[in-house]
Design goal:
30% of the residues lie in helices and 24% in strands. By secondary structure, it is α+β, with helices and mostly antiparallel strands. The protein has a single domain, classed as Alpha-Beta Plaits, CATH 3.30.70. A hairpin with a 2-residue loop joins strand 2 and strand 3. Helix 1 runs antiparallel to helix 2. GO terms for molecular function: hydrolase activity; metal ion binding; RNA endonuclease activity.
Length: 96
């Protein structure tokens, strides 16, 4: 399934800036950054639950916002991209 992770971490304090870096590292370990605070991750259900658990350990719910969108069947889904960034197609052949 495809997971979209969006977050907004308060960076007004040094602790908030550290949380922001830790949240980004968790997301980078699982998916690809498509915008500054938005990641696309291709995972199975267990991977989704693990990702959510790891992210919840990093944020401060009183100051930060975390949203995870689970898209279980992306067949026929359409993503329109505009601008410089082009995401990696998870379903395309891997060429090294």
């Amino acid at each position: 399934m495809l997971i979209i992770v969006c977050y907004d971490v308060s960076t007004e304090t040094a602790a908030g800036r550290r949380r922001l870096r830790r949240v980004a590292k968790v997301c980078e370990s699982t998916g690809q950054r498509v915008q500054k605070s938005v990641f696309e991750c291709r995972v199975e259900l267990a991977g989704f639950e693990e990702l959510e658990r790891r992210l919840l350990l990093e944020i401060d719910p009183a100051q930060d916002c975390l949203r995870l969108y689970r898209l279980p069947d992306t067949r026929g889904a359409e993503v329109r991209e505009h601008g410089r960034f082009r995401a990696v197609d998870f379903d395309a052949p891997l060429v090294l």
